[in-house]
Every structure is written in structure tokens, then in C-alpha cells.
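Lecture 7 notes: from sequence to structure.
We start with the chain below.
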Amino acid sequence: MWKTKQIETTSASPAVSEARPTPASAFSQPVARVAPSATGQAIIGKGVIFKGDITGSESLFIEGRVEGSINLPGYQVHVGRSAHVTANIKAAAVTVMGKVLGDIDASNRVDIRAESAVTGTVTAARVSIEDGAFFKGRIEVLRTVVESVAAPKAIANPVEVFKTVHAKRPEIGKMPLQPVAQTA
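Predicted C-alpha cells for the same chain:
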């Protein structure tokens, strides 16, 4: 998605130039510098308008405008309060605090916070919409299949099952049956 490059001003030793305080005259000259984020998250700032497709392998925080599509499976997309997103979003988790016009497809969850606006189809395993949020569209909840919780198969012959269990654990057959106390 975004290959982070660091462009530095020309100096004899880059490590020394970063350690020294920058003189006030250096602030008057524009210096292009893109540093990797400490949080492993790309940021589209308030003043940025992005048109096109966004793909990648890190989470994304949006405060500006995005038009196109956002495809970050396995990562998070956070739409900030001042963001205007006209795009289909595909990610692991999406949090909306601004405006989204388009479909949201999350493998895990979608949170639509208060004072946000979403128009489109939301597909996720978990969806939450806070009071005060505007939502117009459709919600599709994904079913996750968990084998340990799945319904058991029908028992063809319960007597055979009892014999099998009794053969493996003979102490079960010797347990006295106790009446169950009933409460009113």
C-alpha cells in the first residue's frame, strides 16, 4: 500500500543531523519527510483529498476525503469525525465517526458511533450503532461457524452409545440414581 520512505536534507551524517536541534531558518524551507508511523497505522489528514483505490497491509485512520475503494482485509479502518468517505470499505474492523457513503464489509465488526452518518450495506459478524448516529441502508450479519458449539449429530441408536460409554467407563453404571429436588 504505502511504502514509507524517508527523504532527508543533504548533510554529511544523517544520524547527527536528526540528533541536533533544527535551526529556525530550516522551518521556512519545505522539507518532504514521510516517516513510518509508530502505531503501524497510515493516516489521511484533514486537508488531504484522496481519489483512487487504497490497498495495503496496515490499519488506516482517515480524517480527510476519500473517493474510490478501501481494501484492507485483516486490518482496521477508522473514519474520523471530519472524514468524508465515498468508497466501499473492506477490512477486519471499521469504526465510523464521520460520514461514509458506500458499502462496508468487515470480517469482524463495524461500530457506527454517535453523530456519524452511514449510507449503504453493512456486512459484518458484529454491528453496533450508537444513539445519535444516522444509518440508511441494509445490515447483513455474518454467521461464524464454531465447531465446538455446533449442534450435535442425531444419535441413531442411544443404547449402542450407552454401551460404548459404559465399556470405556464402567464406574458410570455403578452410580446410584438420585432424585432431583424440585423447587416451586
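Points to note: Residues 158-168 form the longest helix (11 residues). The beta strands are 41-44, 49-55, 59-62, 65-79, 84-96, 99-101, 104-112, 117-124, 126-129, 134-141.
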